[in-house]
Write a structure and sequence with these properties.
alpha+beta, six-stranded mixed beta sheet, 7 helices, 6 strands, about 290 residues, 3 domains
């Protein structure tokens, strides 16, 4: 009976001790991960040395027009966008080939995103091209050297929104003309101020709708094509990264120091929480000794 009680109490003590060790280790690991996460997020992604992003051309805003214009013979305003992914042997040559096609169809590169190194390098381009030649331009791009892994065209009919904005703009300009006439005939200061306030509100709305109209013109008079280039198997470099034994030694040494710090930190945690661990162990030993007597 005494031996059974001893083993039960010992088992309980070991379970409690193991549970506390696991909890301490979990807390320590969580603290390490949290600190690493904060350090990793200290720099924004666009400042990482593996990515280079620049915008050599700014998007042009369509000119203001007094009457609605449409981008096809059916009298509709349709937004067209496309995307193509390529696997190519040489990324720089592929970008040069795109520029040749751009000259033919009046395409303008609005964004270039070049990131990664060696075999992991990727180049992404966004090209703006007049909507009238969009289909021909898109098909010629697909014929470029390389393997097309993905191709897609999206269309979005904006005709109703465009007609609504154009109608509202015309009505507001009509109201503006009426308010200007009333302002000329106003005699009292109170009437002038009231009309002027309403006129400012109407003109603000006019500017807002004109900006929306310019946006729709720009989105439907031009199409945007997104191109992504990656290196295929034929273009892979056998050794795209130089061997740096000294650097590897420093990395290994840093890992060793990191592990030693972790061991010391775990020891500190165990030392701090040792009273909590020793109390149940002491109780078990005390009860065991009394039972043995």
């Amino acid at each position: 009976m005494k031996r059974t009680t001893f083993w039960v109490l010992t088992t309980v003590g070991i379970v409690i001790f193991g549970f506390l060790i696991v909890q301490l280790f979990s807390l320590y690991i969580y603290g390490v991960k949290s600190s690493v996460r904060v350090e990793d997020n200290f720099l924004p992604s666009y400042m990482s040395e593996d990515s280079i992003s620049y915008d050599p051309y700014q998007r042009e805003i369509g000119s203001t027009q007094d009457s609605a214009t449409y981008n096809d013979d059916e009298g509709s305003k349709v937004q067209k966008t496309g995307s193509i992914n390529f696997l190519v042997r040489d990324l720089d040559s592929a970008v040069d080939n795109v520029q040749v096609v751009n000259v033919k169809y009046s395409g303008v590169v609005t964004n270039i995103y070049d990131y990664g190194r060696g075999n992991d390098r990727t180049v992404q381009l966004t090209v703006k091209v007049p909507v009238k030649g969009f289909e021909e331009y898109y098909e010629e791009l697909r014929k470029l050297d390389g393997e097309v892994t993905y191709a897609n065209i999206d269309t979005n009919d904006l005709t109703e929104q465009y007609i609504d904005i154009t109608s509202r703009l015309e009505n507001l300009k009509s109201v503006e003309g009426q308010l200007v006439g009333i302002l000329k005939d106003a005699s009292s200061v109170q009437d002038i101020l009231a009309v002027q306030k309403e006129l400012n509100t109407v003109r603000g709305d006019i500017e807002s709708y004109e900006a929306q109209k310019r946006y729709f013109d720009n989105q439907t008079d031009y199409s945007y094509v997104s191109l992504t280039f990656n290196i295929d198997k034929e273009g892979l470099n056998i050794s795209d990264k130089p061997w740096k034994p000294l650097g590897e030694f420093r990395v290994a040494l840093n890992a060793l120091v990191y592990i030693l710090k972790g061991i010391v930190n775990v020891g500190v945690w165990v030392l701090v929480f040792s009273p909590i661990i020793l109390i149940p162990v002491g109780i078990v030993l005390y009860i065991t000794k009394r039972k043995s007597k």
